Amino acid sequence: MISQWQLRAAFAARLSDMYGREVPAYTTLVDVSREVNEDVLRARGSDAERLGSIGRVTAERHGAIRVGTPQELGQVARVFGALGMHPVGFYDLREAAASAVPVVSTAFRPVDGEELARNPFRVFTSLLTTADPRFFDADLRSRLETFLAGRELFPPELLALADRAAAEHGLPEEDAERFLSLAVSAFELSPEPVDKVWYETLERISAVAADIGGVHSTHINHLTPRVLDIDELYRRMTDRGIQMIDTIQGPPAWKGPDVLLRQTSFRALDEPRAMRLADGSVTTGALRVRFGEVEARGIALTHDGRALYDRALTLVDHEVARHPGVDRGELARGVWEEHLPHTERELAAQGLGWFTYHVAPDRPRDGSRPPATIGELLERGWVRAEPIVYEDFLPRSAAGIFQSNLSGEGVRDNGQEGTAHDTAWLSGAIGRDVLDPFALYARQQNGSLAQVARELGLDGVLG
C-alpha cells in the first residue's frame, strides 16, 4: 500500500515538475529558493531550522486552484481527502480586495503534527461567488451557472480512486500510480480553445472570474516554495531579470520573531492560448493568469496575537497615509518595533503566539515547587517553548497577491448588498466541516501543556 502521506508527497512533487514545464520561471524560483535556503542554513546553523527542518522547508509547497461551483468544490475535497488533506479556514477575498475578486476560499492541508512534518502540502482553493449581485447581474449569473454546470473538471475514475484512498488510507501501487497520473492531469493547463467573447465578457467583471468561469477546466494558478529569507530571494530574482510584484505581502522584515506569513511572487506572464472567435475560427491569443509565488512562514498567533497584528496593520496604513513618500516597509518596521514583542519568550508569556511546551532537561533540581504560570515556568527555566509554525493564510495578503497579478481592476456594484458567506455556508458547500485553524493550534499547545503538567505535578493548574 502507498499511504496517504506518500500519495501527498508524490502528488506535490509531480505537480511541481508539471508546473515547471508549463511555467519555466517557476523552476527558476525553486532554484533560487533552494540556493537562499542553503546559504541561510550555512550562516545561521541550527537556528535556521527553528521553524522546520531544512528537509521539510525545501520540499514544502502550496498550490492554488479556483473552481466555479459547490459541486466542483466538493469533488476537490474528495481528491485532496485521498491525500489526507482537510479544509481549514475561511477566507473572504471579496472583502479583502480593493479590486473585483469575487471568491471565497479555504485551504486543504494536513492537520496532524506528524503528518505536517512528513509533508505539509497545502492547496489554497477559491470558489466563485456567482450569486453575489455586486459582480453578476441576473442574466450573467444564469449564463455563468449554465456554463459551469456543463463542464467536468475531474473524471469519475479519479474520484472513485480518491474515495478508495480516503477509505482505505492509501492505495495499492498500481492504483496509486493511476490516481496520481489522473490527479496531476486534472490540474494541467488545457489546450482546448477559449471562447474569446465569453472570456472577455467575464473579464470585464473580474479577471479572476474569467479564469474560473471562462474555460472548461481548472488548472494550477500558482505554486509556492518556502524560503528562509524572502527579502534575499526577492533581490536575487530581480537580479536575474524576473519581474516581481511591487511588495512583499504580510509582516515587515524586522529583528524580532517572524510571525504568520510573508509572501511575494513574480508577475503573471503572458501565456499563448488558443482562442475561438465568434465565427468559429481559432486564433492564438495570450492570457495573464498564472504566476509563481514564494512564502516565508513564521509563528502562528493566538486570537489575541492576531488582534494585535491587525491593529498594527491599521497603524501602518495610517502611517502610510500620513507619509506618502516614505517606504511602507520602513514605516511598518517602526510600528512593529513599538508594538510587537521582541522575543519568542514574550510572545509565549503574553499568550500571543502558539507554542508547544516541554519540560527542560536542565530545570531546577533544588526541590522547589515549580511556578503555576507559563510565563514564570519559562522565566525560571522549568520549561522550553517550541514555536508552532503558521500553516494557514492571510486574506489581505492573498488578495494583495491576486490584485498584483490582475490585468485590470474589474468592476463591482457596491450599491448592491453582497451575498453572505461564512464558514458554515462553506462547510455545507463542500459537504464536510471547514476546520478552525485556531482550534488546531490550541489542540497542539494544550496537548503539550497537559504533558508538562503531568511531568511537573501541576495537573489542573496549567491550561
UniProtKB/TrEMBL annotation:
<keyword id="KW-0223">Dioxygenase</keyword>
<dbReference type="InterPro" id="IPR009770">
    <property type="entry name" value="HGLS"/>
</dbReference>
<protein>
    <recommendedName>
        <fullName>2-oxoadipate dioxygenase/decarboxylase</fullName>
        <ecNumber>1.13.11.93</ecNumber>
    </recommendedName>
</protein>
<comment type="similarity">
    <text>Belongs to the 2-oxoadipate dioxygenase/decarboxylase family.</text>
</comment>
<keyword id="KW-0560">Oxidoreductase</keyword>
<keyword id="KW-0408">Iron</keyword>
<dbReference type="Pfam" id="PF07063">
    <property type="entry name" value="HGLS"/>
</dbReference>
<dbReference type="InterPro" id="IPR047869">
    <property type="entry name" value="YdcJ_bac-like"/>
</dbReference>
<dbReference type="GO" id="GO:0051213">
    <property type="term" value="F:dioxygenase activity"/>
</dbReference>
